């Protein structure tokens, strides 16, 4: 199938059709009625070890559970007789107008899910006027992704052990027309996914990060002295530090956002340092197991940085009402990670486009019924918290 044929099918999905380009039989899978259905059906389209890798998180996956539970504890307050005829989902972010507040988060190695990998994801994004954030660890080069993406595209950056390698990535992103850099700060060491290990997942030797193909081999980790820590004196010896951020900001004309922020003190320091915006994120539960749910951290960070500072959120978004809740608690926009991989695996570019269409319509329905015709109308009064069940005093219960 040609790239043009996939893009045409993706545009059809974005308009609500299950049709395809002439001569093609592109359809979204049966049983997809809402965005979260892509997650429910993902095991049909991904091999079991790959599914475990994508779905799993670090450690005992307490943070993944916290992300989901935190959204479930929030409800939406309906309003009546509100005029929503001029409603829309547009917003301005980093000086650019976006059609809606759902961005595609950086996800590594998408060739695990689909042969066309990030190219197909970018086509789905372009068909739905969606900003894609391309990963440093993508299966396709950032230049190849840029040729398929729409005008709104950002590049996610992992700071490399050698500054010259980081600078090379920055220059390539600038030349390829990326509008912002998103530097990920919360995963200097990768915590293992027990679910993936138990499923026997192993990254294929043939799957390498395309953006790093021309880089010389990374310098070896320092040899730890007898009794030294493999973590502290080994892995963390090459981890980025605060000194690296001013250097990066001085190397590029692009706005730089910091991803992986959960603490309001870090948010204040990053804002003072000149970072253009933050992504409130716990790495989708794939970094520190036990970290706070992103949505729970959001209000304090919004208070710390003020009303007019760009804030995005990722972690736990599974439906349009989750997007609504994130905006109500202070986010300007959200990023989705696993859902895009599930949709990519199910139907390539068409699936990604269809997923975004579903999320956007789910969001619009929430906005309409909550009396919020624009994103600016959504606020803390638009949501409520479900009462938590009262704790039972088991000793008293048994005595009575």
UniProtKB/TrEMBL annotation:
<feature type="binding site">
    <location>
        <position position="283"/>
    </location>
    <ligand>
        <name>glyoxylate</name>
    </ligand>
</feature>
<dbReference type="GO" id="GO:0016614">
    <property type="term" value="F:oxidoreductase activity, acting on CH-OH group of donors"/>
</dbReference>
<feature type="binding site">
    <location>
        <position position="156"/>
    </location>
    <ligand>
        <name>FMN</name>
    </ligand>
</feature>
<keyword id="KW-0285">Flavoprotein</keyword>
<protein>
    <submittedName>
        <fullName>Alpha-hydroxy-acid oxidizing protein</fullName>
    </submittedName>
</protein>
<feature type="active site" description="Proton acceptor">
    <location>
        <position position="283"/>
    </location>
</feature>
<dbReference type="InterPro" id="IPR037396">
    <property type="entry name" value="FMN_HAD"/>
</dbReference>
<dbReference type="Pfam" id="PF01070">
    <property type="entry name" value="FMN_dh"/>
</dbReference>
<feature type="binding site">
    <location>
        <begin position="106"/>
        <end position="108"/>
    </location>
    <ligand>
        <name>FMN</name>
    </ligand>
</feature>
<feature type="binding site">
    <location>
        <position position="259"/>
    </location>
    <ligand>
        <name>FMN</name>
    </ligand>
</feature>
<feature type="binding site">
    <location>
        <position position="184"/>
    </location>
    <ligand>
        <name>FMN</name>
    </ligand>
</feature>
<dbReference type="InterPro" id="IPR000262">
    <property type="entry name" value="FMN-dep_DH"/>
</dbReference>
<feature type="binding site">
    <location>
        <position position="158"/>
    </location>
    <ligand>
        <name>FMN</name>
    </ligand>
</feature>
<feature type="binding site">
    <location>
        <position position="53"/>
    </location>
    <ligand>
        <name>glyoxylate</name>
    </ligand>
</feature>
<feature type="binding site">
    <location>
        <begin position="314"/>
        <end position="318"/>
    </location>
    <ligand>
        <name>FMN</name>
    </ligand>
</feature>
<dbReference type="InterPro" id="IPR012133">
    <property type="entry name" value="Alpha-hydoxy_acid_DH_FMN"/>
</dbReference>
<comment type="similarity">
    <text>Belongs to the FMN-dependent alpha-hydroxy acid dehydrogenase family.</text>
</comment>
<dbReference type="GO" id="GO:0010181">
    <property type="term" value="F:FMN binding"/>
</dbReference>
<keyword id="KW-0288">FMN</keyword>
<dbReference type="InterPro" id="IPR013785">
    <property type="entry name" value="Aldolase_TIM"/>
</dbReference>
<feature type="binding site">
    <location>
        <position position="286"/>
    </location>
    <ligand>
        <name>glyoxylate</name>
    </ligand>
</feature>
<keyword id="KW-0560">Oxidoreductase</keyword>
<feature type="domain" description="FMN hydroxy acid dehydrogenase">
    <location>
        <begin position="27"/>
        <end position="388"/>
    </location>
</feature>
<feature type="binding site">
    <location>
        <begin position="337"/>
        <end position="338"/>
    </location>
    <ligand>
        <name>FMN</name>
    </ligand>
</feature>
<feature type="binding site">
    <location>
        <position position="281"/>
    </location>
    <ligand>
        <name>FMN</name>
    </ligand>
</feature>
<feature type="binding site">
    <location>
        <position position="135"/>
    </location>
    <ligand>
        <name>FMN</name>
    </ligand>
</feature>
């Amino acid at each position: 199938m040609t790239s043009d044929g996939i893009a045409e099918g993706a545009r059809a999905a974005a308009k609500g059709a299950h049709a395809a380009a002439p001569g093609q039989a592109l359809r979204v899978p049966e049983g997809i009625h809402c965005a979260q259905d892509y997650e429910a059906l993902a095991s049909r389209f991904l091999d079991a070890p790959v599914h475990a890798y994508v779905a799993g998180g670090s450690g005992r996956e307490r943070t993944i559970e916290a992300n989901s539970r935190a959204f479930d504890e929030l409800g939406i307050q309906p309003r009546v007789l509100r005029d929503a005829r001029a409603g829309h989902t547009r917003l301005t972010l980093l000086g650019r107008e976006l059609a809606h507040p759902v961005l595609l988060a950086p996800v590594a190695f998408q060739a695990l899910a689909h042969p066309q990998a990030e190219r197909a994801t970018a086509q789905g994004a372009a068909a739905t006027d969606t900003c894609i954030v391309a990963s440093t660890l993508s299966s396709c080069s950032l230049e190849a992704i840029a040729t398929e993406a729409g005008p709104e595209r950002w590049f996610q950056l992992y700071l490399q052990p050698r500054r010259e390698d980081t600078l090379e990535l920055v220059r390539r992103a600038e030349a390829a027309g990326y509008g912002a850099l998103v530097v990920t700060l919360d995963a200097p060491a990768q915590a293992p996914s027990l679910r993936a290990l138990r499923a026997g997942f192993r990254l294929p030797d043939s799957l390498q990060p395309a953006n790093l193909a021309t880089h010389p081999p990374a310098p070896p980790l320092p040899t730890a002295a007898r009794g030294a820590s493999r973590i502290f004196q080994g892995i963390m010896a090459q981890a980025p530090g605060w000194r690296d951020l001013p250097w990066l900001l001085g190397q590029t004309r692009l706005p730089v956002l910091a991803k992986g922020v959960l603490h309001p003190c870090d948010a204040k320091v990053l804002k003072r340092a000149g970072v253009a915006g933050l992504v409130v994120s716990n790495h989708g539960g794939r970094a520190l197991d036990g970290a706070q749910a992103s949505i729970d951290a959001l209000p304090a960070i919004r208070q710390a940085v003020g009303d007019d500072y760009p804030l995005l959120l990722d972690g736990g978004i599974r439906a349009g009402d989750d997007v609504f809740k994130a905006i109500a608690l202070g986010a300007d926009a959200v990023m989705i990670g696993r859902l895009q991989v599930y949709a990519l695996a199910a139907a390539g570019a068409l699936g990604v486009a269809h997923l975004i269409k579903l999320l956007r319509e789910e969001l619009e329905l929430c906005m309409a019924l909550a009396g919020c015709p624009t994103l600016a109308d959504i606020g803390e009064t638009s949501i409520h918290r479900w009462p938590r069940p009262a704790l039972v005093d088991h000793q008293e219960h048994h005595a009575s």
